[in-house]
Amino acid sequence: MLELDGCVFGNGGFRLAADWALDAGARCAVLGPSGAGKSTLLAGIAGFADQVSGTVRADGQALPPVPQHRPVAMLFQDHNLFPHLTVAQNVGLGLRPSLKLTAAERARVADALGQVGLAGLEARKPAELSGGQQSRAAIARLLVMARPVMLLDEPFSALGPAQRTDMLRLVVEVAAKVSASVIMVTHNPEEARALAGLVSFVDGGVASVPAPVEDFFARPPQALRDYIG
Amino acid sequence: MKYLAIGTALLAGAAAAETPVLTIYTYDSFVSDWGPGPAIEKAFEETCGCDLQFVGAGDGAALLARLRLEGARSDADIVLGLDTNLTAAAKETGLFAPHAVDASFDLPIEWSDDTFVPYDWGYFAFVHNADLNAPVSFKDLAQSDLKVVIQDPRSSTPGLGLLMWVKAAYGDEAPGIWDSLSDNVLTVTKGWSEAYGLFLEGEADMVLSYTTSPAYHLIAEEDPSKAAAAFEEGHYLQVEVAAKLAASDQSDLADQFLAFMVTDAFQSVIPTTNWMYPAVTPEGGLPEGFDTLVQPGKALLLSAEDAANLRDEALTEWLGALSN
Amino acid sequence: MAWRALQLSRWPGALAVIAALALVLVALGAVILRAEPGRGLGPADWAAIRFTVVQAALSALISAGLAVPLARALARRDFPGRRWLITLLGAPFLLPVIVAVMGLLAIFGRNGWVNTALAATGLEPVSIYGIQGVVLAHVFFNVPLATRLLLQGWQDIPAEEFRLAAQLRFTKRDLFRHLELPMLSRVLPGAAGLVFVICLTSFAVALILGGGPRATTIELAIYQAFRFEFDLGRAALLSLVQIVVALGACLALFRLLPLHDPGQGLDRVVARWDRSAWDMPVILLGAAFLLLPMLAVLGQGASGLFSMPDAVWWATLRSLIVALSSAALLMLLALPIATLSLRHNAVEAIGFLGLATSPLMIGTGLFIVIFPIADPQAMALLVTVIVNAVMALPFALRILVPGLRQAVDAHGRLAASLGLRGARLWRIVLLPRLRRPLGFALGLGAALSMGDLGVIALFADPARGTLPLQIEQLLAAYRVEAAASASLLLTLCSFSLFWVFDHWGRRGA
């Protein structure tokens, strides 16, 4: 259970308010116009943005201020992989940042790569992978990290529509395996549907209480209608 | 129109020919605003009906190097600023012509050289603050805990002078002297300015300079706090000379300048601009303050030939003693 | 590659390389042709070569080593006045040698603050004279340069990587290993190599602080061959040794430099979560080491600043003109060579040639070439402009190449697809993207030229000399106070030039 209790997050002069909770294992898409503060919401949960007021709780515990100590795993728009490390090393970082993996841990990495369809590509560098394969590697790392909250900040926006759907399916699968909640920023209503969970709409400095995706699109807010056109 | 142009060109050429140019190569500090150059240029141009042009070329050694590079094609009519450590090498180049100057020089030694005319001189000496209980000899210095700054003989004229000083005073014993001095040498600098600067900053107790250095502080700054140590071994001389180049196209004018050089008009400028003793004491005597300077009991000077022959050996000894 | 898509021409780069090479080779060739058979290299020369390499290597290692914690602390701490401090910390590198040495002596000399403090507490004094002094001075000069180059490297690490690191719960050690070490392995060899080459041709510093002929450098041996023995052959030979050592070191370092594609991080504020309690003490210590000697010098010349002879002001004007012309020429050489080096990495090493060659040799060689054609003194300022520009080339290249590579990689395809080429490509895309390194390089080039003695005495016309020459003359005429004031003026000019260009660059970027 992730609670945003009267939260206001700050990023420079910008403020974003959110006051709602997500059940464990829930999936929530965050929609909204560009610049509305979608990424600030994620940064606030991850601890990258300032906590102006309120509290973020996970399973009833207030999260520590330092990002390192939060039970959160995040995918960014880019730079999800280190270019000088191999695929296996990049995934291995999710287990041990020192990269001194035990045999069992190495097996877990190989297994995770297999589950995302990258078996056999352990030794490749990110530059030797396609865009889709790079995303898969990053998802494999989410799998081994097994954190209860996964935050996705438009990580697949550079991929084609078909690949994007594949990746979402993969994320849903991985999240289910580790019973993680997923919050994903997107600008694409189709992706929100594909995630098949809840939707929060960010506009006017507020992230709305998540509603089931069908209800949301059945009665879309005026701002969304303007946004989709 | 065409004829007018040619006429103008001819006139201009004639006018230029009427004012002959005498080119003198010298060291930088001679021509600087604070050196003797400007006053001497003015004085000579009043009498010669010529244009005197000083060309600064580094220091004495750089001056000779430049002449060697230019050879007989050099524009120089006169070179002013070599010292006795350089004259043998200078003479060897065959670039110089004999002079016709006849003067009674007030040098501490006999001077007879058919090529080089001295214009000033000084004694090398260690300068210190007046309140220091200064050593009276190299051996005394070696036994003290005093720190001195000297210049590198490979890059500096005074540095080479010190090498010759110890050699002239001690001959074959020179390496032993350098050995015993090595713990007194705080450091060795590229040139005189750096060494003197270190001394003024209080880094060292003494600095290798000239007996005339305190005169600058006394006369120009009214500061009597500097003194030069008199050494029992005697003091090595630096005699600065000028000579005419054989390839000069202003031979007469060059002779005229060399003659002018030993007159009062030139010599009276030297003490308080070059801070050296004039080669011929002017009629009015030395400026007030020079009488307070230390007078060495004995003047040392190796002949140009000896200096040239002993130089490499002395350098090797110096390097050996100070490198350990 | 974006490089190919952009069709950047190789000709300007090739021409600039040839021009820079020609200057050095013609000068060296002239000296060699003019030389008579002399004696070869003796044991003393080999000792000088050994000492030179050892002190340069020590200076490079220590400078680079100290720059790492300082740049790291500066990269992850924001505090009021940080920009100013970073600019100020660059100052020692721009100081004229003699001014800097006097500043160091005020702190570390026999009567300096350190020894006064030691004596007050009854401890043994420390001596600055010896190889430790030479290295200390070189470190003082070069830590600022190394710090700036490394700081640039830290700022080039994309902000997302630090966020990812926080996500992955990197410890400080992990962060160092996965983010900072790869960056350092890219930037550090180049920075250390540059310091090494700078220290190779050191002469005055090594002599003043070296404590005696033990501290004989190759440059001094060249001086000796030239003026003590007039053995041009030996001087040229020693000069070649200097070049070979420098280029050998550079090529070895460039081999070590992996070709790395810097990510295209968005320029967000780099927020980090790995600050250390040691950051501020490190910054304070670094600032004290670099700024105290400067303060000591500044205090000395201030009183006489407005009572200096007119000649000093004219010399200042000439020096400013030389500095600005030299900086402009530097860009004409550096931008094409930087472009060429995107394709051929080793080209950057050619930039080091000018720096690695003895100024005395270049001066003498050019004199031999120019003398039969023109009056060398009439050419003095022109030659100074050219030589200063070539000497500053390696700095400009080290600063510009990474930025240019990044700009071409990030925007090359787009620019190519829009049909941007030639001058328009530079004006619309590359130069604006390069503004920050461009400002830094221009400032550095101008300031270095301002403080440089340039071509040796052979060319100099004391009546129309530059400010550094004027200071030498004041010192030679016992005018220590006026020289201190003129040194202060020189320092202020160098620093203002640097500040103006650097801030122009940083404001726009």
Automatic annotation (TrEMBL), chain A:
Gene3D superfamilies: P-loop containing nucleotide triphosphate hydrolases. Residues 2-229 form the ABC transporter domain. Keywords: ATP-binding, Cell inner membrane, Cell membrane, Membrane, Nucleotide-binding, Translocase, Transport. One of its GO terms (molecular function) is ATP binding. This is ATP-binding cassette domain-containing protein. InterPro entries: AAA+_ATPase, ABC_SmlMolc_Importer, ABC_transporter-like_ATP-bd, ABC_transporter-like_CS, P-loop_NTPase. It comes from Aliishimia ponticola.
Automatic annotation (TrEMBL), chain B:
Belongs to the bacterial solute-binding protein 1 family. One of its GO terms (molecular function) is thiamine binding. Keywords: Periplasm, Signal, Transport. GO terms for cellular component: outer membrane-bounded periplasmic space. GO terms for biological process: thiamine transport. The keyword Signal applies. This is Thiamine-binding periplasmic protein. It holds the Pfam family SBP_bac_1. It is found in: Periplasm. Its main location: periplasm. PANTHER family: THIAMINE-BINDING PERIPLASMIC PROTEIN, THIAMINE-BINDING PERIPLASMIC PROTEIN-RELATED. Residues 1-17 form the signal peptide.
TrEMBL record, chain C:
This is Thiamine/thiamine pyrophosphate ABC transporter permease ThiP. CDD domains: TM_PBP2. SUPFAM superfamilies: MetI-like (SSF161098). Belongs to the binding-protein-dependent transport system permease family. Pfam families: BPD_transp_1. The chain crosses the membrane at residues 53-72, 84-108, 128-151, 187-212, 232-257, 278-299, 311-338, 350-373, 379-401, 438-460, 480-501. PANTHER family: MOLYBDENUM TRANSPORT SYSTEM PERMEASE PROTEIN MODB, THIAMINE TRANSPORT SYSTEM PERMEASE PROTEIN THIP.
